[in-house]
Amino acid sequence: MPSRVYGHAIWTNHALKRLSDRGLTQKLAWTTFQYPDRSLPQADGSTIYQKRHQSSVVTVVAKQNDTRQWVIISCWIDPPIAGSADDFKRRRYLKYRQSNLWNKFLMQLGKFFWGLDF
Predict the structure, then answer these.
(1) What is the rounded CA–CA span in Å between residue 56 and residue 104?
(2) CB proximity list for 116: less than 8 A, separation 6 or greater
(3) SS (H, E, C) 2-19
(4) What does the pLDDT profile of the chain (118 residues) look like in tens digits?
(5) Mind listing the domains of the chain with CATH numbers?
(6) In degrees, to the nearest 5, what angle opens at C-alpha 77 toward C-alphas 28 and 35?
(7) pTM tops 0.85, yes or no
């Protein structure tokens, strides 16, 4: 199970949930944070770190808090790992985009009445 403090950084509950949802290991996300291929500073003070691992790109969003400790805010992998929650959502979305108007309507009804995610 992922740890709240790993590699001298604090991991938010959101980041830990995204790790499990997306099939990522904390070690892989930490490696991306430590040795990124590129980093993109953001206006809010956070930084996006990206690293290519085989055929995927892992992205980690981190920010330093008031005591200058690193806080890992979120992380994901693109394309999603097969069988993960993100992979399921991606396949449903692609199916929705390729559907005709009637099927899109039925998918929206399913989402509205039964909470089915398209």
Answers:
(1) 30
(2) 107, 110
(3) CCCEECCEEECHHHHHHH
(4) 678 898 889 999 999 999 988 889 999 999 999 999 999 999 999 999 999 998 899 999 999 999 999 999 999 998 877 777 777 777 888 888 899 999 889 888 888 888 876 5
(5) 1-79 (3.30.2310), 81-118 (no CATH)
(6) 40
(7) no
